[in-house]
Every structure is written in C-alpha cells, then in structure tokens.
TrEMBL record:
Residues 96-150 form the NfeD-like C-terminal domain. It comes from Ancylobacter novellus (strain ATCC 8093 / DSM 506 / JCM 20403 / CCM 1077 / IAM 12100 / NBRC 12443 / NCIMB 10456). GO terms for cellular component: plasma membrane. PANTHER family: INNER MEMBRANE PROTEIN YBBJ. It holds the Pfam family NfeD. This is NfeD-like C-terminal domain-containing protein. It is a multi-pass membrane protein. It is found in: Membrane. Coiled coil: none annotated. Keywords: Membrane, Transmembrane, Transmembrane helix. The keyword Membrane applies. The chain crosses the membrane at residues 14-31, 36-55, 61-79. It comes from the Bacteria.
Length: 154
C-alpha cells in the first residue's frame, strides 16, 4: 500500500512538471522573447527525471534550476550560431547604405543645409556651401540627415 502511495505521488509530480512544461511552451507563443521555451524544456526534463527517480520537492526545484540554466545557455549559443549574413544588410539602415556614394546636389547648400536626390527621394544634407548641380560624396549620416563633402575633397 505504501508503494502505491509513493507511485501515485511520483506520478502526480510527473504530471505537474509536464503540465508546467506545456504551459511554459504555450506562453512562449504569447510572450515576446525566446526564454520561456527553454524553461519549458527544463520543466520537461525535470518531469522525465521525476518519473525515473523519485525525489523530494527540494531536489526537483534544484534540478529544474540547473536544467533551466543549461537550457538557456545552450539556447543562446544556438541562437547566436544561427545568425546568417543578410542578403540585404542595409535594409533598416538606409543612410549607412549611402555613405561613400556620390550624388549631384538637387538644391544648393546654403548656410550648411541643402538637398540631394537619391532615386525618387529627396534627402536633407549638411556640408560646406555649394551651388546646385555640384557633385558631392556622402561622408556620414546623423539621423535622417546626410553629411556631404564636395567630390574630390578628402
């Protein structure tokens, strides 16, 4: 009878950890970030360990903490190794893609401010005063404003 009670308790603890694993993995779908999945994996590992080896709740918590630590570390290593080079590296950094290119001033730079045309977009530029039509090179960017220098100037 005592063995049956111990088996029932172990089975209940197994299901508790299994349900916790499922809830954590489902929560990963709702909550932004990529950490709850690893806690779910740790809870799943704990449920398997509890099913195989009977242990007290303190040992279960320690096992879960250690498994969670390892799962998060391994998950971060996997995520870091999956970063592939993008075929469009300047997708969200349009100004960086313009640095080093040369353009013709659309509007003269007066008092340090002017405009250039890049394809179908007009960009605000800063630099030394130059008349419209001058060829300039983009030297850098500050927000959505491009810093330019006249072409042929270091």
């Amino acid at each position: 009878m005592e063995q049956m009670a111990a088996l029932a308790e172990a089975l209940a603890e197994f299901w508790l950890w299994l349900i916790a694993a499922g809830l954590l993995m489902i929560a990963e779908l709702v909550v932004p970030g990529a950490y709850l999945i690893w806690f779910g994996v740790a809870a799943l590992a704990t449920s398997i360990a509890v099913a195989l080896v009977p242990m007290g709740w303190q040992a279960q918590l320690v096992l879960f903490a250690v498994a969670a630590l390892f799962a998060v570390v391994i998950g971060r290593m996997l995520a870091r190794s999956k970063h592939a080079e993008s075929d469009r590296p300047f997708l969200n950094r349009r100004t960086d893609a313009l640095v080093g290119r040369d353009f013709v001033l659309h509007e003269a730079i007066k008092d340090g401010v002017g405009q250039i045309r890049v394809d179908d977009t007009i960009w605000r530029v800063t630099g030394p005063d130059c008349p419209a039509g001058t060829r300039v090179v983009v030297a850098g960017a500050e927000g959505a404003t491009l810093r330019v220098t006249p072409a042929g100037t270091p």
